[in-house]
Amino acid sequence: MALALVAVVLGWAVDWGKGERVAGSNTGTAATTAATTAAAGTAAATTTAATSSASAATTTAPTIDAQTSKLLASLPETFRGNPSCAPAPPTGQGIAATVTCSGANSRHFRFPPPDSATFHLFTDRAAQDAHFLALVGAHGIGREDESGGCRPETRPAHYALYYRDTSGPLPGEFTTCFVADGVGQVWWVDTRTTTTGVLRSSTATTPDALDGLGYWWNGMVLTAMS
């Protein structure tokens, strides 16, 4: 009788131990499954977020049209390729593209740089000529080829042909400088690229400072023109 009781007790203990191990095994499996599911959800969310970010970046990337690309390639050497140069909305009849720069690639040994430079690409030479003549007309600036284009210390504002080299000026290649709305400006017409440029400086408002801006253009732009 005692032996039978011991056998029953031992059998119950073994069965209980088996039940604990099975229960523990089921719990571990459930936890593993939950963790796997959570990890999969996190990975999916991360992938979705990355895809969305890439899609947004692709959507918002600026598009540069052929005319703007042509203008960027035609910029004077001191501005060409500068990261500050960016497209701007073209304003004015006959303007195919506009680019504005706030930095230059090199420094003048003496004269300070302009605050900004703006360049316009025109559809043709007629539109380029009309734009410049409208500019000087709006500011009451007359033509004085014999005085040069920028002589603020000795002559009132005027425009004149400029020389790329000693062979003489090209027809329609004018330059001028003046102060308007508290900003000193130097304008020039480049007929070979059908572009017109302007340097602007908020500090070039005196004859001496405007003269310096003219010398900056002469040394950094004109001397490198082909």
Task: Summarize it.
This protein is an alpha+beta fold and 226 residues long. It has helices at 2-60, 66-74, 125-138, 207-220, and strands spanning 86-88, 95-101, 116-122, 142-143, 158-161, 174-180, 183-190, 195-201.
Architecture overview:
There is one protein chain. With 226 residues, the chain is an alpha+beta fold. Helix content is 42%, strand content 20%. It contains four helices and eight strands, in the order ααβββαβββββα. The chain has an eight-stranded mixed β-sheet, with helices on both faces. The chain is globular and about 45 Å long. The termini are far apart. The model is unreliable at 1-59 (pLDDT under 50).
The major beta sheet can be summarized as: 8 strands, mixed
Strand content: 15-25%
Shape: globular
Order of helices and strands: HHEEEHEEEEEH
State the helicity in percent bands: 40-55%
Low-confidence stretches: 1-59
Strand elements, count: 8
Number of helices: 4
Strand order in the sheet with the most strands: 1-2-3-8-7-6-5-4
- N- to C-terminal distance: 120 Å
Task: Tell me which oligomeric state these chains represent.
Answer: single chain
Radius of gyration from the CA trace?
Answer: 37 Å
Mean pLDDT across the residues is: 81
Classify the secondary structure makeup into a structural class. Answer: alpha+beta
